[in-house]
TrEMBL record:
CDD domains, A to Z: Peptidase_M90_mtfA
Listed Gene3D superfamilies: Collagenase (Catalytic Domain), Glucose-regulated metallo-peptidase M90, N-terminal domain
Entry GO CC: cytosol
Transmembrane portions of the chain: 6-24
Organism of origin: Hydrococcus rivularis NIES-593
Signal peptide feature range: none
MF (Gene Ontology): aminopeptidase activity; metallopeptidase activity
Entry keyword set: Membrane, Transmembrane, Transmembrane helix
InterPro entries, A to Z: MetalloPept_cat_dom_sf, MtfA_fam, MtfA_N
PANTHER family: MTFA PEPTIDASE, PROTEIN MTFA
Protein name: Zinc-dependent peptidase
Superkingdom of origin: Bacteria
Length: 274
């Protein structure tokens, strides 16, 4: 009888902990969001993220809160001898959290670690070319979002991209868009959307725009969205996100429906603030 009571109590505690976990997480996040944001952190962001200063005070404060949560939940690892500094962490976190403004913000639930190399890094890849042979190659990369729990970035590339805001290239926005895309378990260019009906509109707009980009690239035409977006629908979403935040004017002019779709998804209009 005593054993049965002990087992019952253990099961009850485990169930209560599982049930309470999301509630406790929200309480912890709310506390972090309201935590003091150090002045020297603010100074780093002001210096490194050009669009930060154009955001209204309320969005800046919202961004601070998201950054506090992001820094508390993600692990930063320096690779290739790179020492992780406040500047590196804040430059990455601020841009990653820009994608979360005005959204409920699930803080990239699958992402655990951010690996940062000083510059471009080399990755060994193997491709099967027959039943018995694989081809080994070395690829130079600037950033990648591994499907499960990590993102790999080059600090040199991050600095270049943040200095050249408005050129439509941003490795952080790109890799974190992949994270949003993968939240539902598949990397297919369709992130989690609010309502069931949103998927229909998304599919219609994104399919048409992706096909248009592929054909424009084949014809050698100049495009507002980078040619890399024509690789596959997942890359299209990531590249479209970079264009949306860095070249909103051009995107709205040339791809009004795509712009409206991304504005609806990100609940943010870069033309208003950036
Ligand atoms: Zn990509």
């Amino acid at each position: 009888m005593l054993n049965a009571i002990i087992v019952f109590l253990i099961v009850a505690i485990v169930v209560a902990l599982i049930w309470l976990r999301p509630i406790l997480r929200e309480i912890r996040r709310d506390r972090l969001k309201n935590k003091f944001f150090p002045l020297h952190w603010r100074a780093i962001i002001e210096q490194n993220i050009p669009c930060y200063q154009t955001l209204p005070r309320s969005l800046q404060q919202q961004l601070h809160g998201h950054i506090n949560v992001f820094l508390a939940e993600k692990q930063f690892l320096g690779c290739g001898g790179l020492q992780i500094t406040d500047e590196i962490k804040l430059t990455i976190a601020a841009q990653a959290c820009l994608l979360l403004l005005n959204q409920k913000g699930n803080y990239y639930p699958k992402l655990k670690s951010i690996l940062v190399y000083p510059g471009a890094y080399i990755v060994k890849t193997t491709t099967p070319i027959s039943d018995y042979l694989v081809e080994e190659k070395q690829e130079i990369r600037l950033g990648e979002s591994w499907y499960r729990d990590r993102i790999v970035l080059s600090w040199e590339q991050i600095k270049y991209d943040t200095k050249n805001w408005q050129d439509g290239h941003n490795v952080i926005l790109h890799e974190f868009a992949h994270q949003l895309d993968g939240e539902d378990g598949s990397l297919n260019g369709v992130p989690l959307l609010d309502r069931q009906s949103d998927y229909m509109t998304w599919a219609r707009v994104f399919e048409r725009e992706y096909k248009q980009l592929c054909s424009d690239i084949e014809l050698g035409l100049r495009t507002a969205i980078d040619a890399y977006g024509a690789t596959n629908p997942a890359e299209f979403f990531a590249v479209a996100t970079e264009t949306f935040f860095e070249k909103p004017q051009q995107m709205k002019q040339k791809h009004p429906e795509l712009y409206a779709e991304l504005k609806h998804y990100y609940k943010f209009d870069p033309l208003e603030w950036i």
